[in-house]
Structures are given as C-alpha cells and as structure tokens.
Amino acid sequence: MPAVQVDGLFKVFGRHPEQAVARLREGASAAELRAEGSTAAVIDASFSAEPGEIFVVMGLSGSGKSTLIRMLNGLLPPTAGSVRIGDTDLTDLDPDGLRRLRQGHISMVFQHFALLPHRSVAENAAYALEVRGVDRRTRLAAAREALALVGLEGWVDHRPHELSGGMQQRVGLARALAAETDVLLMDEAFSALDPLIRREMQDQLLELQRRFGKTIVFITHDLNEAMRIGDRIAVMRDGRIVRTGTPGEILTDPGDEYVARFLADVDRARVFTASDVMTPLPVGATPAAATVAARTPLTELVNHVARSEEPLLVEDADGRVLGIVTRTAVLTALGGGAQDRSDDSAHLLEALDA
C-alpha cells in the first residue's frame, strides 16, 4: 500500500470552484478560467509515494507545488479528488480526525523554519510532542535525541536567533524526527540556505533517510536538488504534473520540450546511478567480485571501471543482487547515448579503447 496516494486532485480558487473543475475536465484551459474569475492552482494531479521513498515535486514558482503539498495534510481542502495517507482518506475526516492524523502520522518542515523565538531549541524540537500531550520529561528527552541526530546536541538550551540558518533548519528537521511520524512533508525546506549549507542538509537528509526510511514528499524549484535526493520526481507546470519518473528516466526521456529545457545543464554523471545503467545478471553467469550499491553515482562508477574491465555487481540496501554494470554501460551513459541494456554493445567499448 502506498504511504501517500493522490488521485485526480484539483484546487481551484475563486468563484464557483466545482463548476471550474467540471470545465477543466471538459478541456477548458487555466487561462480561460482566469478570465472567468477562477484560478486553477492544481489540475488533475495523481501520484503515489511508496513507504521509505523520497518523492520530489519540482516546479517553478506558480506551478502549484506548494498548493499541492498543503492539500496532503489538509491545510487546504481539495476542490475535487482524493488524498490518502496509508489507508485513511483525508476527505473523509472531520477537523478532529484531521488533527489526530497530523499529530500521529504527518510532520512538515517549512522553508522558513517556523520556530518559536521565545522557546529553546529543545522546546522547539519537542513542540509536536507537546501538542500531542506527551509529558515534558519524555518529550524533551525525545527532542534531545533527535537534535543529536542532526548534530545540535550542544545547542539544546539556546534560542533560535542564536543559531545560523542551517542550524535553524536542522531544528525543524529534528522536530519532525522527534514526532516519529510515518510521513514527512518538506516544502522548499533548504531553498533559503546558502549553496554549501544546502548541500550539507541534503547529505544529512539522505543519511537520516538511510537510517529511518521515512516517506518524504519534498517540494523544490531546484532541479539539481530534485535529481540529487529524489527516488522519483514529479515535474509540475501550470498546476499539472507533466512528467513523473526516476531521475535517470526523466533525464533519458524528458517527455516534452518544457522538461527538456530544464535538463539542458544537468550533469548526467551526477544523476545517473548504478541502477540506471545496470543490465540483468545473465543466467548461469558467475557473479562479479566487486559490488556497488544501486544508488552509486556514475562519477564513482567511473573510478571502478577505470581499474578493471570486469563487470560490477549491483546490490540493493538489503544485499540483494539487482544486476551488473559493465564498462560499456558507464561509458555510454557518460557520452549521453541511448543504451540497449539487453545487448551491451561490445563494439562501442572497442571503439572507445582503440
């Protein structure tokens, strides 16, 4: 069962929103609706996020991505469509049920931190547990443990204004971890940070994800960020999801010119991973001696294939064999050519080695 399931979701602001949805379903454009006094922020959006997946929604300002995430926890009611968290449909919940769902199953990390300035770092990290009714001693202990996970164990008694922007964002992340919810919603969580700090936060998020396996829906306008952290990505434009896939799938098949323009300056070597360029292990073949993780980037695979012509065995996080990566596959991906994974064209390797 998906951790988050979105089906046919619409959000229309303005006059007669239900009628506007009917018009959109009949083929009316968002521009036509604007002329009639309605704004279609999200149009017929559908996707699922699996347990333990980082699902990134990427789009420019005005694409509808932040409106979308606010419907995932009921901050905005959908005009039409459904949102399910686990086996619970948000549209069936009354206000009390919605509050219980948020407290027990969903945490949200905002771009501008949303910290309480008059409270200590520990009290901020414990706030979700306080709202839930957890006693002070227990919630502060959980907060300190979460703060240690994000490297802030020495700052528990400080006020937010004494911390840098990156440290404040870590408090927001610690608050989400302390709540021990199944789903994290992250709305432009790192976008206000300097590039170096942003990358450090991305690294920390990936490390925490390897440890805890949360389901994360991550909103960003930064394609490089989406490609770096996302297991799958949904690209939004003018309220619609126009492409969904893994970073490798989107890079090799953008789907339309709009997405292709986004990809023009992407470094393929930093996006493609072993799972994107692997082929099945031939029946009866002797497993390769060297192994790599499925998420190993192409930049690291280059170092492996430079040392040996033997294929590499690709494993998932549980050590299960997924396939093999050959030198040809790596070189083909670096060159940007289409790769036939069923026939690892040896003539290309001979030409490149000549």
UniProtKB/TrEMBL annotation:
It holds the Pfam family ABC_tran. Keywords: Amino-acid transport, ATP-binding, CBS domain, Nucleotide-binding, Transport. Residues 285-341 form the CBS domain. GO terms for molecular function: ATP binding; ATP hydrolysis activity. SUPFAM superfamilies: CBS-domain pair, P-loop containing nucleoside triphosphate hydrolases. One of its GO terms (biological process) is glycine betaine transport. GO terms for cellular component: membrane. SMART domains: AAA. The keyword Nucleotide-binding applies. InterPro entries: AAA+_ATPase, ABC_osmolyte_uptake_ATP-bind, ABC_transporter-like_ATP-bd, ABC_transporter-like_CS, CBS_dom, CBS_dom_sf, Gly-betaine_transp_ATP-bd, P-loop_NTPase. Residues 4-263 form the ABC transporter domain. Belongs to the ABC transporter superfamily. This is Glycine betaine/proline transport system ATP-binding protein. It comes from Blastococcus tunisiensis.
